[in-house]
Design a protein that fits this description.
503 residues, binds glutamine, binds 1-O-pyrophosphono-5-O-phosphono-alpha-D-ribofuranose, six-stranded antiparallel β-sheet, binds magnesium ion, alpha+beta, seven-stranded antiparallel β-sheet, Rossmann fold, Glutamine Phosphoribosylpyrophosphate, subunit 1, domain 1
Length: 503
Amino acid sequence: MCGIVGVLSKQPVNQLIYDALLLLQHRGQDAAGIVTMQGNKCFMHKARGMVRDVFRTRNMRALPGTVGLGQVRYPTAGNAYNEEEAQPFYVNAPFGLVLVHNGNLTNAHALKDELFQNDRRHINTESDTEVLINVLAHEIERVARDLPLTPDSIFEAVRAVQKRIKGSYAVIALIAGHGLLAFRDPFGIRPLCFGQAEDGEFMVASESVALEGTGHKLVRDVAPGEALFIDTAGRVHTQQCNDNPTLNPCMFEFVYLARPDSVMDGISVYQARLNMGETLAQRLISTMPPSDIDVVIPIPESSRPSAMQLAHRIGKPYREGFVKNRYVGRTFIMPGQGARKKSVRQKLNAIGLEFKGRNVLLVDDSIVRGTTSKEIVQMAREAGARKVYLASAAPPVRYPNVYGIDMPTSEELIAHNRTIEEIRAYIGADALIYQDVDAMKRVVAALRPGLNGFEASCFDGQYVTGDVSVEDFATIQAQRKSQGDEEEDSARSRLALQSRAEG
Ligand SMILES: O=P(O)(O)OC[C@H]1O[C@H](OP(=O)(O)OP(=O)(O)O)[C@H](O)[C@@H]1O
Ligand SMILES: NC(=O)CC[C@H](N)C(=O)O
Ligand SMILES: [Mg+2]
């Protein structure tokens, strides 16, 4: 998951895109970038780091224009430390294209060869987004050769792109001199919505919170397989570019990735989390007597709504036992296991009096690598808890994800090839209760009649696109593993420098 935004306005858009990126920061912490267009000229600034660090006043001043794009990156291909892979990406032909992408192409490696052999295009990074922009450029070139570029020809190009690329993608692009293009994969795995301000200013973004927080009213989600083109005069053109679109949004967005105040595909993320808490409570009641629990404590941040609802349902007090350092980012999306581990203790601190002599039920939204749970259970014990129980609002994460969440290998997942009892022992909890997969799907689907299902592969091992071959898995895993090792090395040397500076 990354956060993407695109704006077409009559006013300068640099500050607006910056503000929207701040609202999407939770979706990517490793790099940020903005591109604006004035006339046919592009202005771009992108670098590693969080939005606040990447854009200084001088960078903002150098982004003129009334149309633009932005992205915050959480890499799922390539490397967090490679600045060239930060987005947006730019190609100069045809017309001049810039593009931002949330998602992951499962056939990027094959396309890279195909682009070189057949389309005579060179890809210079390990980023699947660079592949994507080149496929789009090639298809626009093909449909518009010797002809003026019309909305219909753009949609024809998107149709062709959708036939070539596999995996998940929410995309926003600018075509110099023509307008803003957005499209979403035919399964609607990654989110994308759009809205307008009162003066007609148009915004497309990953989450509705980016629209609301910048004074735009959500119009609707981009439908799976649909493309949207807003020309420079502000006229909106839309077309379905896929023959078999179905809506299967990523379940992990509702579990963890998205902000709770967003509404995605008609589902309130907050309500989804409350519902997960409700069904987790039912599961808990059937597993252990709630009378053994003195207090329910969330593991901040994302588990709060589920923990609150669970506590309400079992009739136990809900207390804040951990304080979160708001200046440490989300640990799960940090590159490198060393950095993630160190950050849990930097990020969360226990309040002793909520734990002393009590049987506590800690609730997290999910347990992925087990980094957080293992540390937190130990911290609860150190704070004097008598018994430490742990409940996860999501089911065990047992399978790799290839659609935009960076967990490409099963080995890194704590629940892979382990029984619940083995996981409990590893984490060191006195009891461990997991959400049930079907119950979770049922209570979230209940919020959106007509939904085809969810992309929930990390929980159920079913890959909705149905076309990820054994070779694709192997290639993605090998590539991520080698990049992961590089990231681990860089993270380790950063930590070493940091400790040397501290001590
Ligand atoms: O089992 P793990 O590999 O540790 O991953 C799961 C944890 O990571 C996430 O928290 P994170 O700190 O990223 O963000 P949050 O503040 O939104 O909860 C998630 O909410 C879990 O707490
Ligand atoms: N998480 C994402 O959406 C990542 C986008 C793209 N695959 C990248 O690595 O930059
Ligand atoms: Mg968390």
